[in-house]
Write a structure and sequence with these properties.
This protein has 173 residues and is mostly beta strands. The chain folds into 2 domains: 2-81, Glycoprotein, Type 4 Pilin (2-Layer Sandwich), CATH 3.30.700; 86-169, Beta Barrel (OB fold (Dihydrolipoamide Acetyltransferase, E2P)), CATH 2.40.50. It has one helix at 84-93; strands spanning 2-8, 11-19, 25-29, 32-40, 46-51, 54-63, 66-71, 74-81, 96-97, 100-104, 109-114, 121-122, 127-133, 136-141, 146-150, 158-159, 164-169. A hairpin with a 2-residue loop joins strand 5 (46-51) and strand 6 (54-63). The longest helix has 10 residues, at 84-93.
């Protein structure tokens, strides 16, 4: 089970996710459990979200503080933060110290794809790898520009929250 804290407008919401037996997800929001399935439509920012059997088309993109979701002609800003016990590790994932930025796994899951190799030059926002957690593909992106200097994980490897996944060194122009 994974727990998240979302900001929906002025409201803070605690959300718990767990995988159901049929591969769908169960989500608990405000004490009520709902069944959901989220399917990305190709390599687009469009998703099909099915909640308790009702399907919705949504457009979503990640921002520095969470997500922007467009649904039914309305745009919703969803802020995310981790529970207090994980806050320090999450902050470390965004640190850039002594010319090196370290990507630390924000979730437990399996490394499904490595999009870069040691020595590759990347820009901020580049997808570095995909980690699958609870049947969802999570693109992990670079927050900095530079050269990939280390990738201590491999495709297919199971990783836990807080594990170092990749390092990027700043390159002087």
């Amino acid at each position: 089970m994974a727990k998240y804290f979302l900001t929906l407008g002025d409201r803070q919401v605690e959300v718990e996710l767990e995988e159901a037996q049929n591969g769908d997800l169960r989500v608990r929001i405000d004490g009520a459990w709902r069944r959901l399935r989220l399917e990305r439509l190709g390599e687009t920012p469009f998703y099909l979200l099915t909640v308790d059997g009702q399907s919705l088309n949504i457009l979503a993109h990640e921002t520095a503080g969470g997500f922007v979701v467009q649904l039914g002609g309305f745009s919703y800003q969803i802020g995310t933060r981790r529970p207090a016990g994980r806050a320090r590790r999450a902050a470390q994932a965004d640190q850039f110290e002594s010319g090196t930025w370290t990507l630390i796994s924000p979730i437990a899951g399996t490394v499904n794809d490595l999009k870069v190799a040691v020595g590759d030059m990347v820009e901020a926002g580049t997808v570095l790898m995909i980690v699958e957690a609870m049947k969802m593909q999570n693109d992990l992106r670079s927050r900095v520009a530079g050269r990939v200097s280390a990738i201590p994980v491999s495709k297919g490897q199971r990783v836990e929250t807080g594990v170092v996944l990749l390092e990027i060194e700043e390159v002087s122009s």
